[in-house]
């Protein structure tokens, strides 16, 4: 089996591997018991047509498309022409088929993707846990001894990649919805600067914070998917680890780590230092201000309430109560509260960017805990909301910063997955991708030590 999408597409382009055969393997992976609840609907005929076209191009010696007829899953938040978009909810179960692709989907299709299906997700993307009472919750495949949460809200997308049912997953990230499931499942999740990818044809959660982006198997795949989704060329900077100025933020980001995450994060930092990385711990006290800034509910509450208020009035009994509860927080926010939030965020971003001016990127645990068990949050609302807040805490910092971040695995073999988050401010995407490639290579070189 190829290690990642980049290796698979090289094989397809060279005619050494059939895209149709690889698609058949992906579809078989989607039908295994471990993939239960991963897909809400599949696009079998469309996927086969894309794979067949890739094989014909290779046979004719024609230049191959960037995604080479390979399986890509789509979060049930993005319009795919000819299929309904239901956002993981029964509230939209009667939605008509989309007349056209969302721009992000269209760009994947134009790049030769075999779009294999809409993946399950947290209802309306409003949780980092991945729980879905309507369509079932996809099970994290990283632990076969006990059922663990997948992370959300791009839950099914991450599991599709982890199980081999897709090479990459289109998803969204509003407070960590790409990076959380990537971290909990040992995958790569890149949240680009929000303005770089169009969101038309996507059911909104927060129009201020939503980002269209992808989960992949490697950092080089993250570069490829970002170039396609953002329709831009990444300018990679070839520098050794010693050439980057890296910080570790102590405030908030390191609180509440469980033993596995604390050990994996400390070991990863040491392995990077052993490879020449210059890493400095900083306080970054501004992170402690976020709780007060968002005390009235934040952008997600206000902006989701604006979109859902009529639907809640008509169909609240069909919502996941945990999602409805979070949306309803926005009802208490007035226009002045919202304007205050915008202004407070703008001032906070300026202070944080000034504090980080001497660094290329910041390193943090993506989330402070390994994936909790499904049983621990299934019936206990208090525990669900505690876990949800803990999972969202670190990655949501980057969304509020209007920045970019990549989560990549940093655990040792035999450990439950742990994510290392590499992050920076607005439009520093190429820097984050460049240093992440170096970090990935350095951690891989020392993984067996």
Task: Throw out a few tags for this protein.
2 domains; 449 residues; single chain; 40% helix; 15 helices; Amidase signature (AS) enzymes; alpha/beta; eleven-stranded mixed sheet
Determine the N-to-C terminus distance.
Answer: 25 Å
Strand content: 5-15%
> How helical, in percent, are the residues?
40-55%
What is the H-and-E element order? HHEHEHEHEHEEHEHEHHHHEHHEEH
Q: Per CATH, which architecture of the largest domain?
A: Alpha-Beta Complex
Q: Unreliable runs, pLDDT <50, ≥5 residues?
A: none
**Helix tally?**
15
Instruction: Name the CATH superfamily assignment of the largest domain.
Output: Amidase signature (AS) domain
Structural class: alpha/beta
What sort of overall outline do the alpha carbons produce when their principal axes are compared? globular
Mean model confidence by pLDDT? 97
Short description:
With 449 residues, the protein is α/β, with parallel strands linked by helices.
């Amino acid at each position: 089996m190829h290690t990642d999408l980049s290796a698979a597409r090289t094989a397809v382009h060279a005619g050494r591997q059939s895209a149709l055969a690889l698609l058949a393997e992906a579809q078989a992976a989607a039908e295994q018991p471990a993939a239960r609840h991963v897909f809400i609907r599949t696009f079998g005929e469309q996927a086969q047509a894309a794979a067949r076209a890739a094989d014909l191009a290779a046979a004719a010696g024609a230049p191959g498309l960037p995604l080479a007829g390979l399986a890509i899953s789509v979060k049930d938040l993005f319009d795919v022409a000819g299929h309904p978009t239901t956002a993981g909810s029964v509230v939209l179960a009667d939605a008509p088929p989309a007349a056209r692709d969302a721009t992000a989907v269209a760009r994947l299709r134009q790049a030769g993707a075999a779009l294999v299906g809409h993946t399950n997700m947290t209802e309306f993307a409003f949780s980092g846990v991945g729980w879905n009472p309507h369509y079932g919750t996809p099970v994290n495949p990283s632990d076969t001894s006990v059922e663990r949460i997948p992370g959300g809200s791009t839950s099914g997308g991450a599991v599709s990649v982890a199980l081999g049912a897709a090479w990459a997953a289109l998803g969204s990230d509003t407070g960590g919805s790409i990076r959380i499931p990537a971290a909990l499942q040992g995958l790569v999740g890149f949240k680009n600067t929000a303005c770089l990818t169009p969101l038309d044809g996507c059911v909104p959660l927060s129009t201020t914070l939503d980002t269209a982006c992808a989960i992949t198997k490697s950092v080089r795949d993250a570069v490829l998917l970002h170039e396609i989704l953002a329709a831009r060329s990444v300018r990679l900077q070839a520098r050794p680890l010693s050439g980057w100025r890296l910080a570790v933020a102590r405030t908030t980001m390191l609180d509440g780590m469980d033993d596995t995450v604390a050990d994996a994060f400390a070991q990863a930092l040491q392995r990077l230092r052993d490879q020449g990385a210059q890493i400095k711990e900083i306080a970054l006290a501004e992170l402690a201000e976020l709780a007060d800034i968002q005390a009235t509910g934040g952008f997600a509450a206000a902006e989701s309430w604006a979109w859902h208020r009529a639907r809640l009035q008509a169909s609240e009994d069909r919502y996941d109560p945990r999602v409805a509860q979070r949306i309803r927080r926005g009802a208490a926010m007035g226009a002045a509260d919202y304007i205050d939030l915008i202004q407070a965020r703008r001032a906070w971003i300026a202070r944080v960017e000034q504090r980080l001016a001497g660094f290329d990127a910041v390193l943090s645990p993506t989330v402070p805990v390994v994936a909790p068990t499904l049983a621990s949050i299934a019936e206990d609302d208090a525990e669900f909301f505690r876990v949800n807040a803990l999972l969202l805490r670190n990655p949501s910092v980057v969304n509020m910063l209007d920045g970019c971040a990549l989560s990549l695995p940093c655990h040792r073999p035999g450990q439950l997955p742990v994510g290392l988050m590499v992050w920076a401010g607005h439009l520093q995407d190429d820097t984050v991708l460049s240093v992440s490639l170096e970090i990935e290579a350095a951690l891989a070189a020392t993984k067996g030590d």
